[in-house]
Specification:
The structure holds two protein chains of two kinds.
Chain A (H helix, E strand, L loop, with lengths): L9 H7 L35 E3 L4 E2 L3 E4 L11 E7 L6 E2 L13 E9 L9 E12 L2 E9 L6 E4 L3 E8 L5 E8 L2 H7 L1 E4 L5 E3 L6 H4 L2 E3 L4 E3 H7 L3 E2 L21 H12 L61 H7 L17 H13 L8
Parallel strand pairs in A: 5-16
Antiparallel strand pairs in A: 1-2, 3-4, 4-6, 6-7, 7-8, 8-9, 10-11, 12-13, 14-15
Helix pairs in contact in A: 5-7
Chain B lengths: L11 H11 L22 H4 L16 E3 L5 H11 L5 E4 L2 E4 L2 E5 L4 E5 L7 E4 L5 E8 L4 E9 L6 E4 L2 E11 L11 E6 L2 E6 L2 E3 L4 E6 L2 E6 L2 E3 L3 E6 L2 E6 L2 E3 L3 E6 L10 E6 L2 E3 L20 E6 L5 E3 L2 E3 L4 E6 L1 H7 L17 E3 L2 E3 L20 E3 L20 E3 L33
Parallel strand pairs in B: 1-2, 2-5, 3-6, 4-7, 5-8, 6-8, 7-9, 8-10, 9-11, 10-12, 10-13, 11-14, 12-15, 13-16, 14-17, 15-18, 16-19, 17-20, 18-21, 19-22, 20-23, 21-24, 22-25, 23-26, 24-27, 25-28, 26-29, 29-30
Classes of the chains: A alpha+beta, B mainly beta.
C-alpha cells in the first residue's frame, strides 16, 4: 500500500514559510521516494537519502511517517521532529511492552532545531542536526548530519561537535550555549541495547514504543490516535491491544495528571535511556524506566528511595541517598538535576541546561512521597 | 532569520592559539585551515589522512593512525577512534592536546599510544572540557592506553567499563590544581572488567582513589607511583588481584581493599598486596563529603574493609600516623558514613586475612578520629575491629612471627580498652599463599 502521511502538517508548515520552493505548493507534486544507500555505506549528505519532500520545512517523503511522543526527552529547549520509514512490504510486530522491533531497512529520523524564541516554536528557527538510526542487517547504526549555515544541506558527522547557539528561553531570557552534536559513540551511550561478543555496544531505538506513542496527533484530518493511525496504514503485524488495556506514559507537565505517573513518565523519557536494566548506567543500580518505578511492583530502593549511590564519585552534593521521601533538598537526584558541573549534572549527555520544569516536577513529587526509613 | 552559525565554539579560538604557542611543531605554515590530519568530518578513515608535523622525526612504527595537536583535535581523534579498525594502534605525537569533550572508545582491541620519548611528551589536557565528564572512556574489550599523560579531567581520568583485557601502562594522570576536592574522583578506573593490567603509572591528586579497580576479576597493579590522592590504590568488590611493587605515599590512605554493599558484584576475594612501599599516607582527606572514601581516617597504610582472603605481605609500611594495617567490618564503616539499605548479599566481615613478613616502623603515632578513641600511641601495626560472625570465623593469620596487634572486639565502645586484646597467639597461623595472577 502507499502511505499518504507525507502530507501531514504541510498546510501549517507552508503558512509559516511562504518563501519555500515552488514544488511544495504544486497540487500534485512528484512524490519524493526514499533512496537508502547500500548497507554499510551511509551517505555523507543527508539530501541523498531523500527522506524529505522539503527538508527545510521537515515535510517527509513518501512512506516517511511523522510521529510524536508523549513525554519528550528534554534537549535544552530544541524543537524536534520525528519520523519513521519502514520499507515497502515490511511490517512491525505490535508490542505493548518495550521498543518495537523494526525490520531491516527501517530508518528512524529525528531533527533538532532551535526556534529563535522557544516560546514561538513555529517562528524563525535554525535546524541544527538530523539524526538517523538505520536498521542494517547486522543491527542498528547511528548517524548524525549537521546542517550548514545556509540550511541547504546537512553533512554526516562522526566525531561530534559543539555548535554555538543563541535562543530566547521560556522565561524570555537570552541563552547562549554550546549545543552538542553527539559523536557516534555518544549516540550509543543512551541507545545502548547490550554488547556484542567483543564488548562493543549494540545500539537501538528508545522512543518508538507503545508507552510513548499512544497519543493523539494531527495527521491532517484532525487529531487521531497514533497507534490507530499506524495500524490503519498497515505498519503493524498484529492489531494493537484495545486502548483501554494499554499502558502509556502521561504528559509530565500536565497538572491534571497523576503526580506519580508524571514523575515516572519524566524518568522514563529523561533517565531510563541509561538507568534501566542493560542500560549504560547499570553500574549505578538505579533503574528509572516506567516499569522499574512502579511502586506497586518494584522495590522502592530500585528507583532510588533511601538508596546510597554505588560509584557516584564525588557527585553526591554531600547527600547520602538518591531519593529521600519528603526531602527534595536531601535527595541526590534533585541536586544532580540542578547541577551544571560536568561531573555532577544529570543527564550527562543530551542537555547542558538545567530543566527547570522537570526539576519542579521532581521536587513536587519527592515532597509528596510518604516518609521512609531515611526521612529525617 | 538565521542566527550566525559557527561550527566551533568561539572559545576554541584562544585555545587554538594556545596549542600553537605550546606546540609550534604542530603548525602547518601556509596550509590555511588544513588540519593536521585532514580528519575532520567523515574524512578520518583510510589511515587518518596525512601525518601531522608533530609526528615528524617521531617513530610511528606500528601506528595505523598518527595524530598531532590541532585546533580541532577532539573531533579528529574521536573520529579516528570510531573509524579505526579493530586492532589498530592510534598514536599521538608529542604535544599538548586540548580537548573540549570526553573521548570514547567502542572499538575492540584498540590501543591509544603516545609516541613521545616519555609519557610527559604527550599530554591530554581536559581543562577546557565542556562535554562528558571523564577524560577517556572505553567500553569494548582489548583496550590499551600507554605512554602518555592525562590531566585536569572534571570527572575520572581514564575509565574502562565492562572490558575484558584492559591495559593502563606508563601513564601519568594528574590535576594542575594539586590535591583538591574538585578534582576527578578516580584517575585510572577499570570497572566490571577482567584481565586488567595497571603498570608503571604515576597518579597524583585524585579526589577519591588514584588507582580504582571496581567489580573486576583477574587484576595486576604493579610498579605504580601513587601519591597525593585521597586513596592511593583501591581494589573494590574484585576477585583475584595482585598489587605489588607499587609506591603509595602521601595519600590520606595508601592501599584499600574493600567489599561494599549494594553492588552487582557482591564479594571481594583474594587480593594479594605484597612488596609495596607504603609510607607517610598522612594527607588530610580531601574527598567529597558523602563518599565512602571521604570517611576514611587519614594516616592509614593498608585498609581492609570486609574483603575476604586478603593477603598483605613483604611490604614496607612506615610512618602512617593512624596505623599500618587496619582491618574492619561494615560495623565500623557504619560508624563513619550513613548506612545504605542492608544488603543481605554482602558478607560484612573480613575473613581469612593473612598478614605476614611486612616491615613496619613508625606507624600509629597520631591516630585520626575515630581511631584516636582507642587511645593508644603508638597504635599497634595491625588493628582489627574484631567483628566476626562467630568466634574465630575471621580466621585471621599473622604468621608465626606476628607484628604487633590490637583487636578492639567490636565497635560499640572502641575506647573501652578493657575490651581490647593485643595477644597474637590466636592468630599465630599461616594460610596458603595466593598464586600469582596470570592474565589471559
Amino acid at each position: 500500500m502507499r502511505w499518504l502521511i507525507g502530507t501531514v502538517m504541510i498546510a501549517a508548515a507552508l503558512a509559516l514559510a511562504p518563501a519555500c520552493s515552488d514544488d511544495a505548493v504544486t497540487p500534485d507534486p512528484e512524490p519524493v521516494l526514499v533512496t537508502p544507500p547500500a548497507f554499510g555505506e551511509p551517505y555523507d549528505k543527508l539530501s541523498d537519502w531523500h527522506l524529505f519532500a522539503d527538508p527545510l520545512l521537515q515535510l517527509p517523503a513518501e512512506r516517511v511517517v511523522p510521529y510524536d511522543v508523549i513525554a519528550p526527552l528534554f534537549s535544552d529547549y530544541t524543537s524536534k521532529w520525528r519520523f519513521l520509514f519502514v520499507p515497502e512490504g515490511e511490517t512491525v510486530p505490535y508490542a505493548d511492552e518495550g521498543t518495537w522491533e523494526f525490520p531491516v531497512g527501517t530508518v528512524l529520523v529525528k531533527t533538532f532545531a532551535y526556534a529563535d524564541d522557544v516560546r514561538e516554536p513555529e517562528g524563525p528557527r535554525r535546524i541544527l542536526e538530523t539524526r538517523l538510526l538505520w536498521r542494517e542487517p547486522e543491527g542498528w547504526t547511528a548517524h548524525t548530519y549537521i546542517w550548514n549555515e545556509e540550511q541547504s544541506e546537512a553533512i554526516r558527522e562522526v566525531g561530534g561537535r559543539f555548535v554555538d547557539v543563541t535562543f530566547i528561553d521560556p522565561l524570555g531570557a537570552t541563552v547562549e550555549t554550546a549545543y552538542r552534536v553527539p559523536n557516534t559513540n555518544e549516540c550509543a551511550d543512551c541507545h545502548h541495547q547490550g554488547e556484542d561478543e567483543a564488548g562493543a555496544i549494540i545500539v537501538g531505538p528508545l522512543g518508538p514504543k507503545t508507552l510513548q506513542l499512544d497519543r493523539d496527533a494531527d495527521f491532517g484530518a484532525g487529531p487521531v490516535n497514533q497507534l490507530d493511525q499506524l495500524s490503519s496504514l498497515g505498519l503493524f503485524d498484529g492489531d494493537p491491544t484495545p486502548s483501554s488495556e494499554r499502558e502509556r506514559l502521561v504528559d509530565p507537565y500536565d497538572p491534571a495528571e497523576d503526580l506519580s505517573l508524571r514523575a515516572r513518565s519524566y524518568f522514563d523519557a529523561n533517565c531510563s535511556g541509561c538507568h534501566r536494566q542493560g542500560g549504560s548506567a547499570t553500574d549505578s543500580d538505579l533503574e528509572l524506566d516506567f516499569d522499574s518505578t512502579d511502586p506497586t511492583t518494584s522495590d522502592a530502593v530500585v528507583w532510588g528511595v533511601c538508596k546510597t549511590p554505588t560509584s557516584a564519585g564525588g557527585a553526591t552534593c554531600g547527600n547520602t541517598y538518591d531519593i529521600v521521601p519528603g526531602e527534595p533538598d536531601l535527595s541526590i537526584v534533585v541536586c544532580r538535576m540542578t547541577a551544571t558541573e560536568l561531573d555532577q549534572r544529570m543527564p550527562p549527555l543530551g542537555s547542558k541546561i538545567v530543566h527547570q520544569e522537570g526539576l519542579a516536577l521532581m521536587r513536587e513529587w519527592i515532597e509528596s512521597l510518604p516518609p521512609a526509613s531515611c526521612t529525617p | 532569520m538565521l542566527v550566525s552559525f559557527s561550527m566551533r565554539p568561539a572559545r576554541l579560538i584562544p585555545l587554538a592559539a594556545l596549542v600553537l604557542a605550546l606546540a609550534p611543531l604542530a603548525l602547518v605554515p601556509g596550509c590555511g585551515d588544513d588540519s593536521a590530519t585532514g580528519g575532520a568530518g567523515g574524512a578520518g578513515g583510510g589511515g587518518g589522512g596525512g601525518p601531522s608535523e608533530a609526528c615528524e622525526g617521531v617513530d610511528t612504527t606500528g601506528c595505523t593512525i598518527s595524530l598531532g595537536p590541532s585546533d580541532d583535535v577532539t573531533n579528529e581523534l574521536q573520529t579516528a577512534l570510531i573509524e579505526a579498525e579493530s586492532g589498530s594502534p592510534v598514536c599521538l605525537c608529542p604535544g599538548t592536546y586540548l580537548f573540549d569533550n570526553e573521548l570514547q572508545v567502542n572499538t575492540p582491541d584498540l590501543t591509544i599510544r603516545g609516541v613521545g620519548a616519555t609519557r610527559d611528551d604527550v599530554v591530554l589536557d581536559f581543562a577546557n572540557q565542556i562535554g562528558g565528564d571523564d577524560g577517556l572512556t572505553a567500553t569494548s574489550d582489548g583496550f590499551t592506553v600507554e605512554n602518555l599523560s592525562v590531566k585536569n579531567t572534571t570527572g575520572n581520568g581514564i575509565v574502562a567499563t565492562g572490558s575484558d583485557g584492559v591495559t593502563f601502562r606508563n601513564l601519568k594522570v594528574w590535576w594542575d590544581a594539586g590535591s583538591v576536592t574538585e578534582n576527578g574522583a578516580y584517575a585510572v578506573y577499570p570497572i566490571s572488567s577482567s584481565n586488567v593490567l595497571i603498570e608503571d603509572c604515576e597518579i597524583v591528586g585524585a579526589a577519591d582513589a588514584g588507582v580504582y579497580v571496581g567489580q573486576s576479576t583477574n587484576i595486576i597493579v604493579r610498579n605504580n607511583d601513587v601519591h597525593a590522592n585521597v586513596a592511593g590504590i583501591e581494589i573494590e568488590n574484585s576477585t583475584d588481584a595482585e598489587v605489588y611493587d607499587n609506591r603509595a605515599y602521601d595519600n590520606a590512605a595508601g592501599i584499600l581493599v574493600f567489599a561494599l554493599p549494594n553492588l552487582d558484584k557482591t564479594d571481594s576475594l583474594r587480593c594479594d598486596v605484597h612488596d609495596n612501599e607504603i609510607y607517610e599516607n598522612n594527607r588530610d582527606n580531601f574527598g567529597e563529603e558523602g563518599t565512602v572514601v571521604a570517611a576514611v581516617p587519614p594516616g592509614i597504610g593498608v585498609l581492609i574493609l570486609a574483603a575476604d582472603e586478603t593477603h598483605v605481605h613483604d611490604n614496607t609500611i612506615t610512618d602512617n600516623v593512624t596505623g599500618g594495617v587496619v582491618m574492619v567490618s561494615m560495623a565500623t564503616l557504619s560508624l563513619l558514613v550513613a548506612p545504605g539499605e542492608p544488603d543481605p548479599d554482602t558478607d560484612p566481615d573480613p575473613e581469612t586475612t593473612y598478614i605476614y613478613a611486612n616491615t613496619f616502623s613508625g606507624n600509629g603515632t597520631d591516630p585520626s578520629s575515630p581511631l584516636d578513641l582507642v587511645d593508644v600511641v603508638p597504635m599497634e601495626d595491625v588493628l582489627w575491629d574484631g567483628v566476626e560472625k562467630t568466634d574465630g570465623s575471621g580466621d585471621l593469620c599473622l604468621s608465626m612471627t606476628p607484628p604487633t596487634f590490637r583487636n578492639i572486639h567490636g565497635v560499640s565502645n572502641i575506647a573501652n580498652q578493657a575490651n581490647h586484646t593485643t595477644d597474637t597467639t590466636p592468630h599465630e597461623c599461616d594460610h596458603t599463599p595466593l598464586a600469582p595472577i596470570v592474565l589471559e
